[in-house]
């Protein structure tokens, strides 16, 4: 199931381009409906893809921003994902190599996936990231007979086939009613795909911004006008759900069917009629909401969906009706009145080439090393923990730096924190030891043998050993004298703030917010 989605993702993207380009109606002798269905039937092949986002900002935008904001502007003004080598194997295994470019940074990667294992290698990271579905289920105690059955090869194949049939059935109806845009052309061309020159049919189409809403409403109206088609669709989907293959698969997975047993024709017809009524109601609601949205936001929509905004697509289709190449461009060019400073223009471009379609494809073997980083651990891993896995000279490390992910901030409120920062009569600020240590990602332990509390900070590798009522401490084994002894206040250890924070490589300062009537201590450090 997982890899049916993976295998069809690129095909569905191409299908989306085709929908915009031409609906399913035959143009110039090319049956676009069959071409779309054919793209969904691809089970193996090789390809290359590019997706690019370009944001155009006002020329003086950076001059009116802080240095950090200007850096973000430069970083995200151009984002480009290039997949130079994508392979999908008929058994569901897949791999890809490529790079993500943001501004002047480029991060290469490689990914390989099987039914139960995914591994991602990133340039500049020594250890790969691995997602082991079986290991996750075993660890969580959820790997029972039903989940194990889901990963069975035969069950995967049956589920994939049933999903395909459902997609084909729904696609025939949903795609069949898509209207063609006014500007569409078809012609024969010679095009090079992966070093091979092919004779292809090129389908070119374009919608400008003023046509988009009318096209969408026309599509919904066409669906609503075909009540018989809706009932036929539901009849075919119900027959698929009632098939022996579907029932056997659900039984093997321990899933109970929602359909009544031994349903007669009258009951089946009643369910189909009720389902059709619900689908019609949903389509009517969507059409009504679209028309209301257009009426309520006409001026602002016109500012963005104008003649300068457009979506254009070129599809290159071979004699087998396989889509072999696609180019798409979406441009949003707001009018002067609709501009949202500093953004002036948005452009999205994509391209793809496909070869060895449904041919023999071999995906490289997946061998995850024992010391790989579990992908699920990123959910609770601090950014600086991940940065420790990176080469400091890599573009990925530089990206984390520019995003401020190597920066830590900790705020302690004098009025509201349960254990607040305190200024002593001598003018020394003291802070709760555990709050600061753990707030910066460290840990505090107690050594009974020495009577010392030990702070370990993994981000910097710093160790601090200290004892109650003593101003002598050991920082990485070296003796230091702090400005104030470690004291116990109501069971909480307090230490001199500046000594503690500077030992961990940070800085601190008091902030007096007169507007909010707040006084707080800000602790910062850059790793």
From TrEMBL:
Pfam family, one: Cu_amine_oxidN1
Calcium listed as a keyword: no
Copper amine oxidase-like N-terminal domain mapped to chain residues: 420-514
Residues making up the signal peptide according to the UniProt record: 1-26
InterPro entries: Cu_amine_oxidase-like_N, Mao_N_sf
SUPFAM superfamilies recorded: Copper amine oxidase, domain N
Keywords associated with the record: Signal
Domain of life where this protein originates: Bacteria
Identification of the protein by name: Copper amine oxidase N-terminal domain-containing protein
Lineage, broadest ranks: Bacteria, Bacillati, Bacillota, Bacilli, Bacillales
């Amino acid at each position: 199931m997982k890899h049916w989605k993976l295998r069809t993702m690129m095909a569905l993207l191409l299908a989306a381009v085709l929908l915009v380009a031409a609906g399913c109606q035959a143009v110039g002798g090319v049956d676009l409906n069959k071409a779309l269905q054919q793209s969904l039937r691809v089970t193996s092949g090789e390809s290359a893809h590019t997706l690019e986002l370009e944001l155009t900002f006002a020329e003086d935008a950076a001059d009116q921003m802080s240095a950090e904001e200007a850096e973000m502007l430069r970083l995200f003004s151009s984002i480009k994902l290039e997949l130079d080598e994508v392979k999908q194997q008929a058994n569901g295994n897949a791999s890809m190599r490529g790079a993500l470019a943001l501004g002047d940074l480029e991060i290469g990667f490689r990914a390989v996936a099987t039914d139960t294992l995914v591994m991602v290698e990133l340039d500049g990271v020594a250890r790969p990231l691995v997602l082991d579905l079986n290991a996750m289920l075993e660890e969580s105690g959820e790997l029972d007979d039903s989940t194990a059955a889901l990963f069975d090869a035969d069950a995967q194949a049956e589920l994939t086939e049933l999903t395909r049939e459902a997609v084909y059935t729904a696609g025939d109806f949903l795609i069949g009613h898509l209207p063609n845009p006014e500007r569409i052309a078809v012609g024969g061309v010679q095009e090079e795909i992966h070093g091979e020159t092919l004779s292809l049919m090129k389908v070119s189409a374009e919608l400008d911004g003023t046509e988009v809403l009318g096209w969408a409403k026309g599509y919904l109206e066409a669906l609503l006008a075909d009540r018989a088609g809706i009932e036929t669709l539901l009849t075919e989907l119900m027959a698929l759900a009632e098939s022996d293959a579907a029932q056997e698969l659900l039984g093997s997975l321990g899933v109970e069917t929602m359909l009544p047993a031994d349903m007669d024709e009258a009951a089946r017809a009643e369910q189909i009629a009720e389902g059709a009524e619900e689908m019609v109601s949903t389509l009517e609601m969507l059409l009504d909401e679209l028309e209301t949205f257009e009426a309520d936001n006409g001026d602002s929509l016109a500012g963005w969906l104008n003649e300068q905004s457009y979506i254009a697509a070129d599809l290159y289709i071979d004699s087998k009706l396989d889509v072999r190449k696609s180019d798409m461009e979406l441009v949003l060019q707001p009018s002067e009145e609709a501009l949202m400073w500093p953004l002036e223009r948005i452009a999205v471009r994509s391209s793809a080439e496909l070869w060895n379609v449904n041919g023999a494809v071999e995906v490289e073997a997946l061998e995850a090393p024992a010391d790989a980083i579990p992908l699920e651990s990123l959910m609770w891993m601090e950014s600086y923990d991940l940065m420790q896995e990176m080469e400091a000279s890599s573009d990925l490390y530089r990206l984390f730096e520019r995003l401020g992910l190597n920066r830590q901030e900790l705020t302690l409120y004098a009025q509201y924190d349960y254990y607040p920062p305190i200024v002593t009569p001598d003018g020394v600020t003291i802070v709760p030891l555990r709050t600061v240590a753990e707030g910066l990602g460290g840990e505090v332990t107690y050594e009974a043998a020495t009577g010392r509390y030990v702070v370990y900070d993994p981000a910097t590798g710093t160790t601090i050993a200290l004892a109650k009522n003593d101003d002598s401490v050991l920082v990485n084994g070296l003796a230091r004298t702090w400005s104030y002894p470690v004291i116990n206040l109501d069971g909480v250890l307090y230490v001199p703030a500046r000594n503690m924070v500077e030992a961990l490589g940070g800085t601190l300062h008091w902030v007096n917010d007169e507007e909010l009537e707040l006084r707080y201590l800000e602790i910062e450090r850059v790793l």
